[in-house]
Amino acid sequence: MALDLIIEINFSDVTMVEGRGNYKNIKRIFNEDPLNPETWMLESHMTIMWQTEPEAPLPMSGFFEANIHAFSNGDITIMSCALPQGVSRDIEVFSSWAQFNHWNRPKLSNDLVEGQIVQWKHYWDTYLVDSDLLERKFGEREANQFSIDSDNQDMSN
Which of 60, 61, 81, 153 gives 66 a disulfide partner, CB atoms 3.0 to 4.6 angstroms apart? Predict the structure, then answer.
């Protein structure tokens, strides 16, 4: 079941602000200036505040704050953040936002994952984030294709 969300996102990096966080817009900004490098990395502090539509049957809201690196190849890496306590929708919202805005599935930096492997494994197992460290430790995840069964409206893989 998809959530209708109201999202406010802020970046400290000027190019991320100008491109509204959208990979295609940011890539266009870099391509328009011949003096810009072909490969690039933007470092930004970001905050996401989100909430479900007020009419939602079960209103929810959240706040996610992180330092990210965004790369010319479409990768976006969470370098540091306050890991939500328990299972939180904040990582799901960030991952969905990133992919909707044409970034690859977010990656986790190895430094972020070390010491918090158990906590991050849930988000990795559910394909919300990618992690080289978790893949080395637990092996490659099985390829899953998630779809909605139109007859039952259930999520299945």
Answer: 81
Number of domains, the chain:
1
Residue 135 structural domain: 5-156
Q: Map tokens 């328009």 to a residue.
A: 32
Cβ atoms within 10 Å of 28's Cβ, excluding its own = 11
**Is residue 132 classed as helix, strand or coil in its secondary structure?**
helix
Q: Are 25 and 42 in contact (CB under 8 A)?
A: no
DSSP state letters, 23-60:
HHHHHHHHHH-TTS-SS-EEEEEEEEEEEE-TT-SS--
Position 55 pLDDT exceeds 50: yes
Give every CB contact of residue 96 below 8 A, 6+ residues apart in sequence.
Answer: none
pLDDT digits (tens, 9 = 90+) for 109-145: 999 999 889 889 999 999 999 999 999 999 988 776 5
